[in-house]
Design brief:
By secondary structure, this protein is an all-beta fold. The protein contains no helices and eleven strands.
Length: 124
């Protein structure tokens, strides 16, 4: 069993930055792929990006975040980060991290574990 806890959300002005963290407990994340999702008000949850825990390779699905968001991991702390720069009001959402028991994250398969989410609000 893996427990995921996100942190780092908050209120920021457009153009600002936030760094989200997702810390896992219960077991080490080697052999897992980690994903970040977000859900804006009245919208469905959407996949944002992923990272392979073992290799560190990353993937960004949304063109709107490419070049602004960066996924990374800290093996020593069993933590995944989502660095968000040049934030826009349309980035406002609850951000979730997720884990899959596989090498590369496949959004179509859903997640084996979810965090509780952290609110990000970007004001204009």
């Amino acid at each position: 069993q893996v427990q995921l806890v996100e942190s780092g959300g908050g209120l920021v002005q457009a153009g600002g930055s936030l760094r989200l963290s997702c810390t896992a407990s219960g077991r080490a994340l080697s052999g897992y792929a980690m994903g970040w999702y977000r859900q804006a008000p009245l919208k469905e949850r959407e996949f944002v990006a992923s990272i392979n825990w073992s290799t560190g390779s990353t993937y960004y699905l949304l063109n709107s975040v490419k070049g602004r968001f960066t996924v990374s991991r800290d093996n020593t702390k069993n933590t995944v980060h989502l660095q968000m720069d040049s934030l826009k009001p349309e980035d406002t959402a609850v951000y979730y991290c997720a884990a899959q028991r596989r090498t590369y994250y496949l959004p179509s398969l859903g997640a084996d574990y979810w965090g509780q989410g952290t609110q990000v609000t970007v004001s204009s």
